Each structure stands twice: as structure tokens, then as C-alpha cells.
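Notes, p. 3: input format for complexes.
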Amino acid sequence: IVIPACGSAYYAGCAGKYTIEKLCRIPVTTELASELRYADPLIDGHTLLIVLSQSGETADTIAAIREAQSKGAYVLSIVNVVGSTIARISDDVIYTWAGPEIAVATTKGYTTQVSVLYLLALYLGEKRGCLSREEAAKLTDDLMILPQMVQRAIDLNPQIAQLAERYKNNPSLFFIGRNVDYAVCMEGSLKLKEISYIHSEAYAAGELKHGTISHIEPGIPVITVATQANVLAKTISNMEEVKARGGMIIAVCRKGTVFAENSVDLTLEIDADLDDMLVPLPTVCALQLIAYYTSVLRGIDPDKPRNLAKAVTTE
Ligand code: M6R
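Output follows (315 residues plus 5-amino-5-deoxy-1-O-phosphono-D-mannitol):
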């Protein structure tokens, strides 16, 4: 499976990759459509292209589809805008039915794309015998309660507004996490830089010591996404490395996560009765709110960031 997309849709694909590989045991590569189109990709008649696009009109994504089709790939698109170009040129389409998305920064586009990838992974996992009916039923139940879990993340509003107040004037900020938490970090970082104009970078936590840690100095905010049990201890140790160099740690974690004394400055607890695999969805809503409040507190209109268009229909 190859997932080409741009911007947030690409990051939704990065999150979906973990779920599909875990539940279906099929190798997945996520590709920036603007790169894939010129890369002479290793795609053939055995490739399933899962295309993600809110608008269905992104020029680079359309070009990536054409390139893959010329090599014989089967194209399944996950698109929001009904009847859009991508929906029409694909072999199959699943609509996300998120309704019109007005703000330039995509929010429900991203969350619905990740939800559909999750559903697809559940379906394929069961069909391929990688997932028992009971396991699939349990994960489906989790999906059904997702709206309440997202609401709980949205209820963190006042806390997030206070948090944004603390770092709104910082010139730069980092996001770190591992595995699907890293995918969530990339989206959180894009949202923040897109609508607040603060420079921000997402880093796989284990990569810190390969470069970024030289940027950590007293007071620099580092949003650490630590929701996944299998990598929690590792992420915590990266967090402590940052803290030891004076970084300001904002931990976004599951409710009840215990950290060593003085290792965290602020905590944003995601209260979700969900399998770890689905926690990225409420978590990303909290990160979207971080971007929103930072933008508003800096006097920017979060719906209309400068220099950006809602649909990028030219190269
Ligand atoms: O319409 P698309 O999903 O194809 O758009 C892809 C990107 O241009 C889009 O996600 C962009 O990165 C957003 N402004 C992010 O908020």
C-alpha cells in the first residue's frame, strides 16, 4: 500500500500507516505527493494507492495519482468533497462526509481521514485473518464512543488557553513523540506554525540526540506527546533529557500517566477509554486547540492564515 498526500493529509496517512500495518500486516509507505510524482516510484499492478485529500483538488496529489495509474496501481481515494477531481479519477472513493471545511487549516478533514483509515484497517485486518471477530468488535466499539472521547479533549479548552498564554511569545517550539505519537506531533506542529506563525518542528523523540537537542536551551517549549504504552518509557527518558537542559516540558499524555517529580512543567491529560490505537484522534484535537489559542492570543485570525489557500490547485 502506498499513501500519497500533502500537508495534513500526508500526516493523517503517517498515522494510518501504523494502524494498517498493525492490524493487516501489509507494508505501507506514506509519500509526499509532490515528491512521489517525480520519483519514478516502485509502483505496479500489485500496488494499492490510498489517496487522502480533503478538497479532492490538490494538484500534486492529482499528479501522483496519474503517475501511479500509468504504472498500473489501483486507486482508492478518501476524500471529503463530493464529486471532486480526485474522487472522479480514482477507481474507488470513500467519502469522509465531514461537511464543508471553511478554515484554511484542516481540522475535521484530518480527523475523518484518520477515522476512515482506521475503519479500513479493521475491515482488511478481519478479511485477511489478522484480527479475530472479537478483537474487531472491541475496536469497533471504541470507534463508536470516539465522539464522547473527542468531546473530553475539547473540554480541556480552558487549560489549553492558559498553556498557550505561557509560550505564545516564544520564537520557536518543538514537538516530540514516538511511533504514532510522532505522527500526531507532525500534525500538531504543522497546525501551530500554520496559524500562529511560530516556528515549530516535530521530531521523532529518539532522533533528538541526532541533532535537535543542540537547540534545547532554558525555557524552550517542548510539547511531548506520550500516549502509547509500548514506547512510553522511552519517550519519558527523552523528555527527561530535554528537561535536564532547561527545556519547558508540556506533556500530552493519557490520564493517570505518572512522571518523575519535576520532570514535567505542564500536563495535558487525554481522558479516553480507548485502545491506544485510537488515542491519536482525541489527542490531535487537543493539539489543534493549542494551535487555535496560540493564534488567537497572538492576534491572528486562525481561519485565514497569511499566504495560504484552502485548496492548492497549482503546483
Ligand atoms: O485538500 P487536501 O487535503 O488535499 O489538502 C492538503 C494540504 O494542502 C492541506 O492539508 C494543508 O496542509 C492544510 N492547510 C493543513 O491545515
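Residues 6-9, 53-55, 58, 61, 104-106, 109, 190, 194, 308, 311-312 surround 5-amino-5-deoxy-1-O-phosphono-D-mannitol (CB under 6 Å).
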